[in-house]
Amino acid sequence: MTDTPTLVDVGGRRLRMSNLDKVFYPESGFTKGQVIDYYVRVAPVLLPHVRDRPLTLKRYPNGVEAKSFFEKNVSGHAPDWVRTVRIETPGSSKGAESADFALVQDLPTLVWAAHLASIELHVPQWKVGPRGGERTPDLLVFDLDPGEPATIVECCEVASWLRDELTEDGLTAYPKTSGSKGLQLYAPVRTRSAGRTSEYAKELAERLESAHPDLVVSRMAKNLRGGKVLIDWSQNNPKKTTIAPYSLRARPAPTVSTPVKWDEVRSCRRPDDLRFEAGEVLDRVDDLGDLFEPLLADDRPSL
Asked: Which residues pair with 248 in a beta bridge?
């Protein structure tokens, strides 16, 4: 690989690429070129989960150990073939009332984002329509975040309780690792209002906190979280985003937010049991397919 910019054809689009040998993960030597290669190879299962969802880029131009920044408004530098959608952003830290978000609809756009050092891909739980209108949430998410010394092992126990509750309410939960410390549960839903998933998720989190106060907390205050698992229901707020399935994470190693089987959740005994790096995830996809494929079905229960 070379630092000299090179024109590359990706799906019929021309992309100018450079610095492909720059190390993005110093601990493992994983390079920018390897980041792009991972996203190209995982694209068949990743793209359906981000399509029509406004993308917030989290960019690490000098790798995961250097400064990063979130980017929402890409209209100033995106190629004209990248589809963007204007979304209102009241209260933005930059003072803008709206931003032009990228939509990752195809492989060229995914590679363009990866080349911008957007190591992490963050998307909301709702989609936009053909004309850019915001739809109501179609996914319910619970982000399980362990407070030390708790780990993903305790998250798995809480996830099983959440799964039982969701099943009783007619919903089917699908787990994935966060790619960092915790675990996330998703359920496909149909909603009539933007706030319905947040209302439901908060009520369920509080119910589990009441039933299991020694391990579960539903409030964000850090002084409440030691040794417990926070059920972060707030990720259902339409203004928030969550790490996309199959996205890399900016950790010391190129770990991935990885869909997992419930058998793996039940059998988790140590954190490394549910820690997957890029190469392992590609092997899992070859063996297991897309474990999150049921989230893409049109037929989903009403919430």
From this structure: 256
